[in-house]
Amino acid sequence: MNEKAIRDRLVEHGQTLFRAPKQVIQFTRDPQADALLNDLTSHPHAFVLACVMDRQVKAEKAWLIPFRISEKMSGFSMEALNALSREDVNRLMAEPEPLHRFVDTMAGHFHSRPSGLGL
């Protein structure tokens, strides 16, 4: 098979997947958390922030972080996230139990991402 045939087959497969009915991807085994992560129309930042949190902890735990913070904040809008100080994010990630094994470092990453994402 030559390069053009491979490319054409990949494009065709991609188009088939794009046209297929959307399915909820299970990241966390928590239906509410997975719903937030799959809502790319209203909350694309939840997915991106979960990607950022996925470092040196079990994936399911990392992918739960945006949802756990949304529970504490009663929402996950960009406006509300942008209003948080670095200390606010650290507190949200540390109390009452740590959401990540590296709370300080990951709170810094979490805090720097919303405004830097341009969302």
Short description:
With 119 residues, the chain is an all-alpha fold. The protein is built from seven helices and no strands.
SSE layout and pairing:
Layout: H1 3-19, H2 31-38, H3 44-53, H4 59-73, H5 78-82, H6 86-94, H7 103-117
Helix pairs in contact: 2-4, 3-4, 3-7, 6-7
Please give a structural write-up.
This protein is an all-alpha fold. It has one domain (28-117). It is 66% helix and 0% strand. It is built from seven helices and no strands. It has helices spanning 3-19, 31-38, 44-53, 59-73, 78-82, 86-94, 103-117. The longest helix is centred in the N-terminal third of the chain and has 17 residues, at 3-19. It is elongated, with a radius of gyration of 17 Å. Mean pLDDT is 90; it is low at 114-119.
The backbone outline, from C-alpha atoms, is elongated
Query: Radius of gyration, rounded?
Result: 17 Å
Number of folding domains?
1
Q: Report on the biggest sheet.
A: none
So what's the oligomer here? Answer: single chain
Average pLDDT reading: 90
Q: Percentage of helical residues? A: 55-70%
- Going by helix content, strand content and strand pairing, the class is mainly alpha
Task: Give me some keywords for this one.
about 120 residues; mainly alpha; elongated; disordered C terminus
